[in-house]
Amino acid sequence: MNDQKIYIIGAGLAGLVAAIELEKAGFAPIILESTGEIGGRVKTDEIDGFLMDHGFQVLLTAYPEVKHYLDLSALHLKTFEPGAVIFGEKDSYIISDPLRNPLKVVGMAFSRVGTFLDKVKMFSLTQELKKKPVEEIFSSPSVPTLQYLKSYGFSNQIIDNFFRPFFRGIFLEKHLNTSSRMFEFVFKMFSLGHAAVPEKGMGEIPKMLRNQLSNTQIYFNSPVKKVEGKTIFMKNGDELEADRIIICTQPDRIMEQLQGQFPAAKPVITLYFSLQKSFMARPMLGLVPGESHLINNMVFMDDVSPAYSKNDRSILTVTVLESDLNEKDLVQAVQGELEHLSGIKAEYFKFHKSYYITHALPTVVDLKASIPVTECKIMDHVYLGGDYMLNGSINAAMTSGRLAAEAVMLSYTPTH
């Protein structure tokens, strides 16, 4: 089967997993990547002696697909402490373990975040979702997450102080309009496993996938202009004839008939600052409740994995969900907020880098855990992969790559 020309467009997680599966079946696929590196949205840069992920991302160790494709011990995962540092208007306080074992939460801290009844409800929801299969979660009725939380009986206090800032940072939208299916799935993953990062950054994940490839060629800096039938038109003018094509990037950009078929993706802005030392001093996410701040969440990455800083300063990643400010004004505004929240003068927060990520998460209307492999085929010889087909997650990206490869293999299976 090595003589079959199978092209994969995009060397993100979906494309790499598709290549892994095709190699297992005896194919030697070719990946066309528009940039100079693998990983898609999962990348890590080294700048000024710091590791900087493209956007604040974590790996949830309970993701089902992760166990198939990643050797978690070889990634030397560094885990976040369950819970959060809540930065209130007057002071900050820690809420420990609210998802993993809410009944053990220290009474004082929790009482500031939610009520005793919230604690009981958090515990019962955790237990329910641990037992609820993922497929059942994604076939449950879908309502906005905010409505789901209110219907479950959580108080406004815990919704405003914990759920809103925590899940806004995951869903990348301010109003928790994201489907309750995604909420239940993520909540289940947090309660079953850990949030973690590879010791040397999220970019280690695609590197590990690539290292599983031996018969796949990757052509970098090879942007595709369009796909028509079995022909790939490259932006440099080349034309490639394929037997099968798997598109693991935004397909509406390269297939005219799909333009307007996908809702706009969710953007995010990530800013990196360094400080002489962390003012949180623990591997925990910092949440900023309320509507008046630009900062939604922040974390000193070297508190989680010391390898993120190769000098004597601490590296802080700050997530801003939306802002119309230019970079200079945004940096100043965020430094001002950091001073207000920490009591440390704004000028001590040294700015290093911003990432304006326009396509951080896909907007998926009908969230799913999986789809039949036949649904990956969009037309004869052309298949789709990408988290936008299922739900916005590392798990979904890997699932979609596997399904697309299985669909291609199915097309070579003789029918009787």
Automatic annotation (TrEMBL):
Amine oxidase domain mapped to chain residues: 13-409
Annotated Pfam families: Amino_oxidase (PF01593)
Top-level taxon: Bacteria
Protein name: FAD-dependent oxidoreductase
Organism this protein belongs to: Algoriphagus pacificus
